[in-house]
């Protein structure tokens, strides 16, 4: 009886990993067929996409990385050049990943069953960099946003 229970649980967790892997493979194929500037790999049950973007012909080049584990919302990081955190820039202060949407104000909640990176996260990332470059010119974040203020330490 214990052997049967052991195998049942073993296959259940394996099935969860298999469905997650299918999600990651699907996302990788969709990104590859829509964005040639991103190179994606799947490592340790995580989709990792890296690429260089240039919002306009006059812009700097930005090296980005997208991390997606298949269920929760993907995270986008700026690799180079490094941006110094400022409360007005639409970046999460702790991990320094880009804030591309706010669930409450944008009425958007990531659902891996109906959303794809190629038609949400990537276009929003490209748009984010346009607003970042406007910020560099005007000193103001031009896109509507919800503040992500850094919590000050008492020390």
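-> sequence recovered:
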């Amino acid at each position: 009886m214990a052997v049967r229970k052991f195998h049942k649980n073993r296959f259940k967790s394996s099935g969860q990993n298999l469905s997650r892997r299918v999600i990651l493979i699907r996302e990788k194929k969709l990104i590859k067929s829509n964005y040639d500037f991103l190179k994606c790999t799947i490592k340790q049950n995580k989709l990792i996409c890296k690429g260089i973007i240039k919002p306009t012909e006059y812009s700097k080049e930005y090296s980005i990385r997208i991390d997606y584990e298949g269920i929760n919302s993907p995270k986008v990081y700026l690799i180079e050049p490094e941006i110094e955190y400022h409360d007005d820039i639409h970046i999460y202060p702790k991990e320094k990943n880009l804030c591309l949407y706010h669930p409450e104000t944008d009425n958007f909640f990531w659902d891996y069953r109906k959303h794809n990176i190629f038609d949400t996260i990537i276009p929003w990332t490209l748009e984010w960099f346009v607003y970042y470059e406007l910020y560099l010119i005007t000193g103001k974040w031009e896109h509507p946003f919800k503040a992500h203020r850094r919590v000050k330490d008492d020390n």
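Residues 4-14 have pLDDT under 50 and may be disordered.
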